[in-house]
User: What shape does this take?
Amino acid sequence: MNTTHFISETASPVIFKTSWQAPSNIALVKYWGKHELQLPKNPSLSFTLSSCITETNVEFLPHKKDYFDFEFYFDGELKPEFKPKLKIFFDRIYQYIPWISNYKMEISSKNSFPHSSGIASSASSMAALSLCLMDLERELFPSVSINFFNQKASFLSRLGSGSAARSIKGPITIWGESKSLNLSSDLYAISFEDDINPIFKNYQDTILIVDKGSKLVSSSQGHNLMHGHPFAVNRFNQASKHLLELTSVLKTGDLESFMNIVELEALSLHSMMMTSDPYFILMQPNTLAIIQKIWEFRKNTNIPLCFTLDAGANVHLLYPKINKFEIHKFIKGELLMFCQDENYIQDEVGEGAKKCKFEL
Ligand code: PMV
Assistant: This one.
């Protein structure tokens, strides 16, 4: 399949409003390094989250101009400072949704997680917006199938933020071509539904907020530093190998192997950052203190608690729901002291995006 598959026709405008909620996701096999327009250098796999969501309302108002226009509100306030980034997104996707030129859009968004928590909202926000756009496309072209709807929503989201491609469906999604997965694609994410072991269906993710601030090096800068990185090819091969191994572990429920792959992926991602030129470190002393504590706890209790990291200092603790009680005791007693203002977010694996009631 190539990108022409996603080019829609034009259509006469209609008045339309819609609202979608899309979740954040946490990668277990990491995407780090891209080429062309947001195409990944290796396949990645993530847990879709449940509570960390963006809710976006879009009111499509037909207008007589020959190019689209929009206003963006966040938490009820007009935010012109977000417009340039969104304009880049709309310019990129315009060729796939040419009908958009007939509209002025009033977009309004809010996140379930605090704005200043250090949790990136680009995945959930790009996914929620793309779903609103697809909802109108389905209204204009009723023959759009549910499969195409989800695929194109993921395809559009990817053009906003790579990892957003994985925020449409749940509970586990894979983005990027992998030899052993027939339907996998670099253009959009697919849902991994192959007999997932029940233990993973409500796996817990406690996000320890080590640093609420914005990152010194953005993901886009980090991805770019993989061009010419001396370890890049090995890293991309390693990720592809981990993806194959993990898809098997997700069926068998072998938690030892799960923890090993997930932690190795997190540390490999950060190793790439530390060996880029220019090099950088996004972990903080408290990130390492938490990791040491997790390893100590696991050794002493045999409870299957492991961690992953995204592109930042915060630590995602991953564990089965049956161990929630003991692990929360451990978090409260021994880990919260390493968090900024003792902040954390409790989440778990979720089912994917949902349409909701339009409310202003
Ligand atoms: O989607 P981006 O460009 O913000 O990159 C995401 C990169 C990681 O979060 C570090 C890994 C991933 O696969 O989500």
Observations:
- Helices lie at 83-93, 122-140, 146-160, 219-224, 232-252, 255-274, 285-301, 324-335.
- The chain has two domains: 3-196, 200-348.
- The radius of gyration is 20 Å.
